[in-house]
Amino acid sequence: MGSGSSSTRKVEVENDGTVIRVSDAVVDRLKGIKPESKPESERAVYPNQHHVSPNSLTSLDVKRLVEKELAANDQYWNDRLLKLQASSRSIEDVMKLEYYQAIKEIESMYPERSFGKKVPCEDVKKNILKCYEENRHQALKCSQEVLKFQNCLVNKAY
């Protein structure tokens, strides 16, 4: 476009996490603004000079900060999980204790019906099942056995 003898320059910068400051003159040249001429004595040229202000963060600093925050977050949630698990275990222990106390209380109220003992009227129940097997299509023939079982249960209940 221009008729001058300008040439395109390519600049490659390897950044190892430090901040590279660019002077206003370089910014002006990149924008295409003509620089004001300064006397040679005022120009200080220092090749590969990096200016880092004390308040600026490098990408390495940001990465370290993020990793530190993530580690703190992980620690917080691990601690929270452990506390919840401990709380759950203590609630479970209380529930088990209350359950077993309720069983003991019921057993003391009804000692003749203690849990874990033999089922009442087991022999009469077996007679009913045998009768039903022998009379599969004539269930009414077992009515006497059913009445015996019913009377047995009523007598065992009291």
UniProtKB/TrEMBL annotation:
Source organism of the structure: Bemisia tabaci (Sweetpotato whitefly)
One GO term (biological process): inner mitochondrial membrane organization
Regions that span the bilayer: none
Name of this chain's protein: MICOS complex subunit MIC19
Compositionally biased spans, kind Basic and acidic residues: 31-43
Coiled coil spans: none
Classification via InterPro entries: MICOS_subunit_Mic19 (IPR052632)
GO cellular component terms given for this protein: MICOS complex
Chain positions covered by the region annotation Disordered: 31-53
